[in-house]
Amino acid sequence: MSVFSLRGRALRAACLVAGGALALTACTSNSDDAPSVDKVDVSKVDSIAAKVPHELMSSGKLTVGVNVPYQPNEYKDPGTGKIVGFDVDLVDAVAKVLGLQADFKEADFEKIIPSVEAGTYNLGMSSFTDNKEREQTADFVTYFSAGSQWAQQKGKTIDPNNACGKRVAVQRTTVQDTDEIPAKSADCVKAGKPEIVKVAYDEQSAAATALVQGQVDAMSADSPVTAYAIKQNVDTIEAAGQIFDSAPYGWPVKKGSALGPVLQEAVQHLMDNGQYKKIAENWGVQEGAITKSVINGAS
User: Fold this and answer.
1) Neighbour-count burial for 161-191, b at 16+ CB within 10 Å, e otherwise
2) Both 269 and 157 in a single domain?
């Protein structure tokens, strides 16, 4: 797997995901509106909030560096222009547990972790994978598990491990485009079977649309992206096979910062009381939900 090929599980620059700006709903359900997602009512927990570093407690806010778009985790609502998504709702909930207000600041993807190191942002929130390389410069509070996930049209059966001769949609520059499908196709050819016909699109929404319309047999994408596409087109497409090549998402904070353990305790509180699960379900990404948050969980 290339370390430069996917936003969440790599170190890629923001320009590689800029093509994903269109909401999946705009291309697959003939609607220009973002879906309405309910907010979970979360309250301050005094025993955890008391551990917030003094400078944050004084300011009353948690400054969060974020790069958009990466639907459904973080993107702009086309109606209001506000940054919304699964990650946003979860960080908002964590901030409420701590008695703080999350203040989201847009930034280039590759500049977020250096800005956390410099103290410009208290944490980063852009579907960062917690990996050993990144742990050299920041601490990561884990909150999700993401991998690759295939989707197929309802009523049809596609095996991601035996898709020789099938047409598979991907977004250009992702790990599915550069690594996964080419490798699987090469295995097909070695076995004397037809190659996989990779159909690459500039935007993930176009890949989902192609599957909905039956222009391709399957789609491969990051698991939360596929889960959200399925949620938006539940009558048309469904998951094909299991999630594979999973790795943890984490929020980067300054190395050795006292904020890391406080964030970890706050998100663990939400996991334990069921509110974290509800947030994940609201966005259709519950399959990647975890039950234990750790600091620096890369394997």
Assistant:
1) eebbebbbbbbebbbbbbbbbeebbeebeee
2) no
Q: Backbone dihedral region of 107: left (phi > 0), alpha (psi from -120 to 50 degrees) or beta?
A: beta
Q: Residue 292's CB: how many other CB atoms inside 10 A?
A: 11
pTM of the model: 0.79
Query: Given this model, what pLDDT does residue 7 score?
Result: 53
User: Is residue 7 included in any domain, yes or no?
Assistant: no
Clarify whether residues 44 and 131 are in a common domain: yes
Residues 239 and 252 both lie in one domain: no
Residues counted in the chain: 299
Residues 31 and 97 grouped into a single domain? yes
The domain in which residue 71 lies consists of 14-145+248-288
Q: How far apart are CA 141 and CA 130, in angstroms?
A: 8
Q: Check whether 70 has a pLDDT greater than 90.
A: no
The contacts of residue 202 (CB under 8 Å, 6+ apart) are 19, 171, 172
Summarize the confidence of residues 146-162 as an average pLDDT.
Answer: 96
The pLDDT tens digits for 232-277 are 999 999 999 999 999 999 999 999 999 999 999 999 999 999 999 9
pLDDT of 206 > 80? The answer is yes
Q: Residue 150 belongs to what H/E stretch?
A: strand 138-153
Let me know whether 130 and 252 are in one domain: yes
* Judgement on whether residues 48 and 118 belong to the same structural domain of the protein: yes
Whether residue 10 contacts residue 222, with contact meaning beta carbons closer than 8 Å, is answered with no
Within a domain: 299: no
